[in-house]
Design a protein that fits this description.
Blueprint (H helix, E strand, L loop, with lengths): L1 H27 L2 H8 L3 H7 L3 H25 L5 H14 L5 H10 L3 H25 L10 H18 L5 H14 L4
Organism: Aerococcus suis
InterPro entries: DNA-bd_HTH_TetR-type_CS, Homeodomain-like_sf, HTH-type_TetR-like_transc_reg, HTH_TetR
GO molecular function: DNA-binding transcription factor activity; transcription cis-regulatory region binding
C-alpha cells in the first residue's frame, strides 16, 4: 500500500510540475506552487525530488521519452520520400503542444546549472536529434554531400523554431507544408 501511495504522489507531482514548467517555464515555476497544487508541503515534495532542477529534469525526461517514441515510430512507417518523413516529424513536433521549444531552449541556456544543462542537452540529443538523424540517413542519396545527417537534423530544428515564430497564424498542417518545402527546396525551389 505504501509503495502505491508513494508512486501516486510522485505521479501527481510530475503532472503538476509538467503543467507548470511547460506553461510558464522553469524560472517562474516554484516548488511551493507545485506542492500546493498537489496538496502536499514543499518539504514533502523534496522527499520525492531533491530540488527544483531534479524535478525539472524528470519532467523533461518524461516529455522527451514520449516524443522519442513518436519520432522513432516514423522509422518503422512505410514512407517513400524525405519530404513525407519530415512532414510526419514536423507534425509530431507541432502537435505536441506540451512543449514550448523556445522556452525549453531558453531555460537550457539561461535558467539551470551547467550539470543540468548538460543532462538536458544529452536527453534532447538522444531522444530527439538521433531519430531525426536516422531519418536523414535513410535518404542519404537525396542529401547534400557537404553536410552530415547530424548537421541536417540540427539545422532542421533551428529552422523549424524560426518558422514557428514567423507563422503563428498558420495551422499545423499549413505550417508543416510550408516549412518542409522551404527546408528542402529553399526559396528558389
Amino acid at each position: 500500500m505504501a509503495l502505491s501511495t508513494h508512486t501516486d504522489t510522485e505521479d501527481r507531482i510530475l503532472a503538476a510540475a509538467t503543467e507548470m514548467f511547460m506553461s510558464i517555464g522553469f524560472k517562474r515555476t516554484s516548488t511551493r506552487a507545485i506542492a500546493r497544487q498537489v496538496g502536499i508541503t514543499q518539504p514533502n515534495l523534496y522527499h520525492y525530488f531533491p530540488n527544483k532542477e531534479a524535478l525539472y529534469l524528470a519532467v523533461i525526461g518524461n516529455e522527451l521519452q514520449q516524443l522519442n517514441h513518436d519520432l522513432s515510430a516514423i522509422l518503422e512507417m512505410d514512407i517513400h520520400s524525405l519530404d513525407e518523413a519530415l512532414r510526419e516529424v514536423t507534425l509530431i513536433l507541432l502537435n505536441y503542444d506540451k512543449v514550448d521549444y523556445m522556452s525549453l531552449h531558453f531555460d537550457m541556456i539561461h535558467s539551470v546549472s551547467e550539470p543540468t544543462r548538460k543532462k538536458m542537452y544529452t536527453g534532447w540529443e538522444e531522444k530527439m536529434l538521433v531519430p531525426i538523424t536516422q531519418i536523414f540517413a535513410q535518404y542519404k542519396a537525396d542529401l547534400p554531400k557537404e553536410m552530415s545527417e547530424y548537421e541536417l537534423a540540427q539545422l532542421y530544428f533551428g529552422q523549424m523554431a524560426t518558422m514557428m515564430r514567423f507563422y503563428p497564424h498558420l495551422d499545423n498542417n499549413e505550417l508543416a507544408v510550408k516549412f518542409i518545402h522551404l527546408f528542402l527546396h529553399g526559396i528558389m525551389g
